[in-house]
């Protein structure tokens, strides 16, 4: 992983966020000192629909940080995918600390 927002970043994040999915998706969970919270917002209409998933990870121990990851799924009126977007933003703390934490998680997956 080179930086927050690149393809390898989202591969790591997808693995971490999968801890909150399953038969009954969780809205709160913890991984290695980081508390995660997920919110989903959806709309479905005659001509289009979308789901926006906002997940926030926060480490309160020093050095503390907060990272927000947003995934958008857009569909046409028939339910066919038209566009998927994902982005991330550091809301507090050091980017370097977040990247280091994510690299530790990536090593743990191996």
Low-confidence blocks of residues: none
- How many domains comprise the coordinates? 1
Question: Which strands sit side by side, in order, in the main sheet?
Answer: 1-2-3-4-5
Q: Work out the helicity level.
A: 10-25%
Tell me the quaternary state.
single chain
> Measured on Cα atoms, how large is the radius of gyration?
15 Å
Instruction: Describe the global form.
Output: elongated
**How many β-strand runs?**
5
Mean pLDDT reading: 88
Largest beta-sheet details: 5 strands, antiparallel
State the distance separating the first and last CA atoms: 14 Å
- Sheet-strand content, in percent, reads over 45%
Structural class: alpha+beta
User: What is the string of helix and strand elements?
Assistant: HEEEEEH
Q: What count of helical segments does DSSP give?
A: 2
Quick overview:
The protein is of the alpha+beta class.
